[in-house]
Amino acid sequence: MDAPKTATANWKTQYYLTITTTLGGTTNPPNSTWYDSGTTASVAAIPDADYVFDHWELDSVTVGSANPYGVYMDTAHTLHAVFVYSPPQPTYYLTVETDPAAVTTIPGEGWYNEDDDVPLTAPNYVVVATDARYKFTYWDVDGVPQGAGVNPITIHMDANHTATAHYVLQFYLAVKTSPSGVAAIPGEGWYDQSSNVSLVAPPVAGYDFLYWDVDGASQGSQVASILVSMNAPHIATAYYTQEQVVVGGFTTSINSSLLDGWIGLNIVIAIAVFTFALWIKRQED
Predict the structure, then answer these.
(1) Which of 78, 166, 187, 272 could be disulfide-bonded to 18 (CB atoms 3.0-4.6 Å)?
(2) How far is 252 from 249, CA to CA, in rounded Å?
(3) Cα(258)–Cα(261) distance, integer angstroms
(4) Domain residues of the chain, as ranges?
(5) Mean pLDDT, to the nearest integer, of 27-43?
(6) DSSP-assigned letter for residue 269
């Protein structure tokens, strides 16, 4: 005290922020502390493994899920972080195959959450060539058939699964006649590999049946009924020839309508010749 002096004590107001959490997480800052009046305290919620941050409660009032959250310190406050248990959802793998392998690619293979439902659709036909194709027959899931022709199917992902689309190879059988259009013979179409197709050449008025050939190979003279084994695409042709008739000492081919006309013409000529000869005889008498 070497002279008169004045000492002044300066004070400021502070408020206490209490920070609490539910089970499943912490905060940053982690502890309750004092803050100057009029400042904003920023607090971040940090969830533990298998938990997620859900929301904040300020003085027991829900104030949303912004993270971090700013508390304006105009009075003492309590900030409560709420965490929710949320373990990772199991995932399972779906394998999608075809039988035979690599017939086609069917979308849908991959990872899915537990209890997802996955639709799978197989194409009904896969074209190999103009006269060869694969035809869908059925799905199986883990070896269990899902029903003949049932398509699409839905896989419930409660475990890893393998879905297989089964196909059968088909070949086309073309059925023709020679001459073309002589007869309509049933049997042309698509057939499963190794199936046997019965073909019968019908009788045709004005024509004699000769033989069948399959891909150019004769199946035997006058063998009208044959079996075609569908081990490949085939063309079966029934051969006919016009019926043979004798006219004036000569053998000729003529169809039935022409034959009827020819016979009728010969009858008219015969009657005319007979009538003329009778007239001549009467003139001579």
Answers:
(1) 78
(2) 10
(3) 5
(4) 14-85, 91-170
(5) 96
(6) H
> Is the separation of the CB atoms in 36 and 17 below 8 Å?
no
| Residue 7: other Cβ atoms inside 10 A | 4
Q: How many CB atoms lie within 10 A of CB 35?
A: 17
From CA 236, how far away is CA 189, in angstroms rounded?
A: 12
Model confidence pTM above 0.90:
no
The one-letter code for the residue type at 197 is V
Q: Is the omega angle on the peptide bond into residue 100 within 30 degrees of 0, that is, cis?
A: yes
Helix (H) or strand (E) holding 268: helix 256-284
92 within 8 A of 159, measured Cβ to Cβ:
yes
Lowest model confidence (mean pLDDT) among 109-113, 125-129, 257-261, 280-284:
257-261
pLDDT digits (tens, 9 = 90+) for 48-81: 999 999 999 999 999 999 999 999 999 999 999 9
Quick one: residue 216, left, alpha or beta (phi over 0 = left, psi -120 to 50 = alpha)? left
Q: Could you say which DSSP state residue 11 is in?
A: -
Decide: 196 and 230 in contact? Cβ < 8 Å.
Answer: yes
Q: Which phi and psi angles does 224 have, rounded to 5°?
A: -85, -25
d(CA 36, CA 56): 22
Tokens describing residue 96: 């999608």
- Would you give the DSSP letter of residue 205? T
